[in-house]
Amino acid sequence: MTFYLATFYVLGAIAVLSALLVITRRNPVHSAIFLIVTLLSVAGLYLQLQAEFLAAVQIILYIGGVMVLFLFVILLVNLEVTVRQEPFNRMWWIAGVAALVLLGELAVTYYLGRQAFAIPVTPAAALQPNTELIGRTLYQTYMLPFEIASVLLLVAMVGAVLMARRR
Amino acid sequence: MPQNFLEWIWLVPLLPLLSAAVMLLAGRSLPRAIVSWLCCGTVGLSFLVSLGIFRTLASLPAAARVYEKVLFTWLPAGMFQTATGLAEFRIEWGYLVDPLSAVMILVVSGVGFLIHVYSVGYMAHEGGYYRYFGYLNLFMFMMLTLVLASNLLVMFVGWEGVGLCSYFLIGFWFLKKSAADAGKKAFVVNRVGDAGFLVGIFLVSTTFGTLSFTQINAAVAAGQFALGSGVITAITLLLFMGATGKSAQIPLYVWLPDAMEGPTPVSALIHAATMVTAGVYMVSRTNALYQLAPLTLEIVAVIGALTAIYAASMGLVQNDIKRVLAYSTISQLGYMFLACGMGAFAAGIFHLSTHAYFKALLFLAAGSVMHALSNETDIRKMGGLWNRVPVTARTFLIGGLAIAGIFPLAGFFSKDEILWRTFANTDYPAGFRQVLWGIGLVTALMTAFYVFRLVFVTFFGRSRVPRDVEHHIHESPPVMTIPLVILAALSIVGGWVGIPAVLGGSNPFEHFLAPVFQSHAATTAAEATAQGHGLELGLMGVSLVAAAIGIGIAYLFYLRQPELPDQWAFRFSRLYKLLFNKYYVDELYSAVFVEGPLLGKAMGNSFARFDLRVIDGIGVDGTGWFTRFTSRLSIWWDTWIIDGSVRALGFTVRLLSWPVRVIQTGFVQAYLFLMATGVVVFFFYYVIRYRDEIRQFLQLR
Amino acid sequence: MVPTTHYLFLSAALLTIGVIGVLTRRNLIVVLMSIELILNAVNINLIAFARQLASVEGHVFAIFVITVAAAEAAVGLGILIAFFRNRETVNTDEIDLLKW
C-alpha cells in the first residue's frame, strides 16, 4: 500500500460516505453540508490526479458559489415543515434496485475491461504547468465552446433572476 | 198538340225533386215563407201537369192510351240467358203513361198538395221546418217515380225511396226515442218484404229477359205461359211478399201502428193515402202475371180479407185517435187486396182513390183536433168539441160517414163494388166467396162502429178535457181547414165517378181503367152483371144496414149509456185484453226475431264477436303487435350492433391507451426513473451482446 | 500510482448514489444536490482518463461541466423559488402538473 493508494482510499471513503449522508439526511442543511464535504474530498482527489487548476476551480466555484447559492435557497424555503416530512418517496426501493443494477453493470464493464486500463500512467510532468496548458487549450482549440459557455452563463443568470424576482 | 203534352210527364216527378234538393242543400238558411211557397208550389204544379196529362190521355182513343217516355238508358243492353232462350236485357229510366198511372198521379199529387198546404199550418211552430218539407217533397218524387215507372227496377227504386222517406218522416222528431225506434221498425219490416220483392224481380228477369211492363204484358198476351204455371206463381207470390210489407198486410203490418209517432200530416200522406197503397198499385200493374196464377190470387184475397177483419178488431178498443185510424188503414188495405184477389183490380183502385180522400181527411181532422188540444191524442181526454172546433168536427163526421160506407158518399160505392164482386165472382166456389163476403160485411160493421166511436167520444158528450188545456181550444187556421173542406167535398163526390150500372150510372172509372186490366176483368164484370141486378141491390142494402147497426151500437155505447163500454170490457176482460194488446203479436215477433236465440240479436252479437276478436284481433291488434315486434328488433340491432360497434371502438382506444395513460403521472421522478431504467436496459443489452468485442477492444487498446 | 480503475469504480459509486438521490428524495433541493453529485462523478471520470492519456482536453471538458452545472443549479433553484411561491411546497410528489 503506497501513500497514494492510502490517500485515495481515505478520500474516496470520505466522498462516498458523505455522499450517502447527503441523500439520506432529513434536514436539507445537513445535506448541503455533507455535499460540501463530498466536494472537498473530490477536490482532494483532483489534486492527487495532477489537476491543480480544477481542484481550485472546484473549491472556489463549486463550493464557494453553487453551494452557497444552495444554502441561500434552503433558507428561503420552509424548513420547519420539511424536516418533519417523509424524506423518501413511494418508489424508493425500485429506484434503488435500478440504480444498483446500473452500478452492477458499470462494475461488470469495468472489471471486464480492466486490462485496458493497465497501460502505464503518464508521469506528472505531462500535464505541467496545468493552468497554462488548460488556458492555452481553452483559448485556442476550444474558443467557440468557451464563448458559448459564457453565453450560457449569461442566459442562466438572466433566467435565474427573471424567475426568482418578486412578481 | 195532345200527343206532345204527354212528353212532359217527366215534370211530374221532377218538380218535387227539385224543391227537395233545394231544401236539403240550402233549406236551412231560407225563410219559412219561401220554404212553404216553394214546396207547396212544386207539388201544385205537379198536380196541374197531371191534370193536363189526364185530359190529354182521355182525349185519345181507348186503345191508344199508352205512352212510354224514356229519359235515359240506365243499364245498357247485354245478352242474357233466360228460360225461353237468349234475350237482350236493358233497363231504361222511363215513365209509362196509361190510364192506371194517370189516375194514380192525380190522386198522389192532388192529395199530396192538400196535405202540403195543411202542413204549413200544422208545422208552423215546429223546428226543422225545411227538413220536413224537404223529406216530404223527396217522398213525392219517389212515389211519383214508383207510380210512373215503366219497368220493375225503376219501380223498385221508387219503392225503396218511399220506404226511406217514410223512415225519415216517422222519425222526424228523432230526439224522441219512441219515434226513432218506430222509424227503424218501419224500415226493417219493409226490408223483409223487399227481400221477397227483389227475388221476384230476379225471377222475372230470368223468365222474361226483361223488366219492362209493356214487354211483360206482350209476352203474356202472346201466350208463352200456361195458366197456373209454377214459375209465374212463384214470381207473383214473391212480389206479393213485398206488397205485404209495404201495404201492411199480415204478417208484416206491425210497423204501421208505430208509425203514428210521426207528424200527423205524414201519417195522412204516407200511411193512408199514398205509400201504403203502393202494394195495391204494384199488384194492379202486374195484373197480367197475377191473372196467370190463380193460386196466388186466392192467397191474396184470403190474406186481404183476414187482415181487414183482424185490424178492425184491434181498432175497436184503442184509445189513441191516430192508432184507431192506423188500424183502420190496414183494414181498408185488406179490402183493396181482397178486390185484387177477386180479379176486380179496377174496384181495388177505385177504393184506393176514395180511401185516399176520406182517410187523409180523417187524419188531418184528427191532427186539427190534436192541434186544438195541445197535441192530446187520447180520446178519453176529449169530448164536447162539436161547437168548439166546428169545421174540424163537421169534416171529421163527413169522413166518418164516408168510411162507414153510407150512401151517397164515396166509401159506399167503392166498398160496395168490392163486396159485390167478391160475392159474385164465379171463378171461385160459392162457399169460398160467400165466406169472404161475410168477413167483408162484418168488417164493414166494425168499421162503422169504431169510426163513430171516435166521432161520439171526441166531439160529443161530456167534456173530459183537462182544465189547463181547455182554455186554449181554438179552431185551426184556414191554411189547415181549407184542405179539410176540400177533402170533405171529395169524400162526398169522389165516388160518383164509379156509380155502377145497377144504380143508373155508367161507371166511367172502371171503363177508363179497363184496357189496363184486360182479359179477366172484362169477363168477370160481365159475369157479375149477368147474376142479376137484384142480387146486387140486395147486397147493397145489407151492407147499408150493417153500417147503420155499427153506428147505432156506437151511439148506444158512447152517448146513451156510457157505462156500457166498461161493463162489456169487464165481462169479456180476456177478449178485451187480447184486442187491446194487439193479440201480443209485437211481443211474439220481438221474442222470435229480435231477442230470439237463433235470429236477431244473437246472430248480430256473434257476428260482432267475430269481427272484434278475429278481424280486429288479427288485423288491427296483430298489425300493432307486429309493428312493435319489428321495432323491438330494430331497437336491439341499434343498441347492440350499431351502438355496440361505436362503443367497441371507444373501448379499444381506451384499452390500447391504458399503458400510455398510466405512465403519465406528472411525477418527474417517475419519468427520470423510466429514463434510468431505459439506460440500464440498453446498457445491459449492449454489454451482453458485445462483451467479447468490448473485451477485445479494451485489451488491444 | 493509483490505477485508473479505482477512480472509475469511485465515480460509478458516486454516480449511483446520485441517481438514487435523484429518484428517491422528496425534497427538490436534495434532488438538485444529487444532480451535482452525478456531475461530480462524471468529472472524476474525465480527470482520471485525462491523467491516463496525458490529455488536457479532459480538464477543459471538466471545466465546461462545472460551468454548466453552475448554470443549471442557478436556473433550477430559480425555478424552485418560483414554484415555492405558488405552491408553498418543494415536495416532488406534489409537483405533478405535467400530467396534463
Largest sheet of chain A: none
Largest sheet of chain B: 2 strands, antiparallel
Order of helices and strands of chain A: HHHHHHH
Report the helical percentage of chain B. over 70%
Polypeptide structure, described:
The complex is a heterotrimer of chains A (167), B (701) and C (100). Chain A has 167 residues and is an all-alpha fold. Chain A contains 7 helices and no strands. The termini of chain A are far apart. In chain A, 27% of the residues are buried. Chain B is mainly alpha-helical and 701 residues long. In chain B, 73% of the residues lie in helices and 4% in strands. Chain B contains 30 helices and 2 strands. The model of chain B has no long low-confidence stretch (mean pLDDT 86). Chain C has 100 residues and is mainly α. Chain C has helices at residues 4-24, 28-53, 57-87. Chain C is elongated and about 50 Å long. The chains are: A mainly alpha (167), B mainly alpha (701), C mainly alpha (100). Chains in contact: A-B, A-C, B-C. Chains A and C meet through helix 1, helix 2, helix 3, helix 5 and helix 6 of A and helix 1, helix 2 and helix 3 of C.
Main attributes of the structure:
heterotrimer; A: mainly alpha; 7 helices; 0% strand; globular; C: 100 residues; mainly alpha; 3 helices
In short:
Chain B has helices spanning 2-5, 11-26, 32-59, 99-122, 129-148, 152-170, 177-208, 213-221, 230-246, 255-258, 264-273, 278-285, 287-290, 294-315, 321-341, 345-372, 390-404, 410-423, 430-459, 467-470, 478-493, 508-513, 520-531, 533-560, 564-571, 573-580, 585-594, 601-663, 668-689, 691-700; strands at residues 67-82, 85-97.
How is this fold's topology laid out?
The complex is a heterotrimer of chains A (167), B (701) and C (100).
Chain A: H1 3-24, H2 28-48, H3 52-76, H4 79-84, H5 92-112, H6 130-140, H7 143-164
Helix pairs in contact in A: 1-2, 2-3
Chain B: H1 2-5, H2 11-26, H3 32-59, E1 67-82, E2 85-97, H4 99-122, H5 129-148, H6 152-170, H7 177-208, H8 213-221, H9 230-246, H10 255-258, H11 264-273, H12 278-285, H13 287-290, H14 294-315, H15 321-341, H16 345-372, H17 390-404, H18 410-423, H19 430-459, H20 467-470, H21 478-493, H22 508-513, H23 520-531, H24 533-560, H25 564-571, H26 573-580, H27 585-594, H28 601-663, H29 668-689, H30 691-700
Antiparallel strand pairs in B: 1-2
Chain C: H1 4-24, H2 28-53, H3 57-87
